[in-house]
Amino acid sequence: MLAAYYNEHLTEAGLDEAGRGCYAGPVYAAAVILPKDFHHPLLNDSKQLSEEQRDLLRPVIEKESIAFAVAAVDNIEIDKINILQASFAAMHRSIEQLHIEPELLLVDGNRFKAYKTIPHQCIVKGDGKYAAIAAASVLAKTYRDEYMRRLHDEFPHYCWSSNKGYGTNAHRLAIESFGLCKYHRMSFSIHPGLFEEL
After folding, report:
1. In the 8-state DSSP scheme, what is residue 192?
2. How much is the pTM?
3. CA-CA distances (angstroms) from residue 6 to 36, 160, 196?
4. How far apart are CA 103 and CA 134, in angstroms?
């Protein structure tokens, strides 16, 4: 069962990102402040949920959260600053959009770039431990998936509606056949012929 909070007395925002390991598209991040008594039986790390479960949870999180925000960093900026810094930037942008300033940031993972003077706590696999981080993981994932489905309409041969930009076999084969497009992350050193060399 997910913990409702890390510190009972502070206003906490859970932070998580989606799409960090993808070949294409932006990285998304979400910040979510939940009521201390929030509970939903389905809520968990978004990777442990089905697409249907995530889609059910998203409106619940948006309705019942005290505040939430979602932000993205596109592939062009990822190529300029690298994916780790882009993940931090997306998280910072999501915090900036919150209409309430949190007193503590709960960050999924083991690294974070401090945001202003707000203290933060990095929690490895935090999306499976704390409700606010799990909620952020659901929002980041569902917003990003929605965006990748829209990009699929522009470049259907990469199968982004199903793989969401991850390096699946279908995506790799499409890169072999069609090359890269403007949404691919060039800094990831993916190119036609690469997969034959591996």
Report:
1. T
2. 0.95
3. 10, 36, 47
4. 19
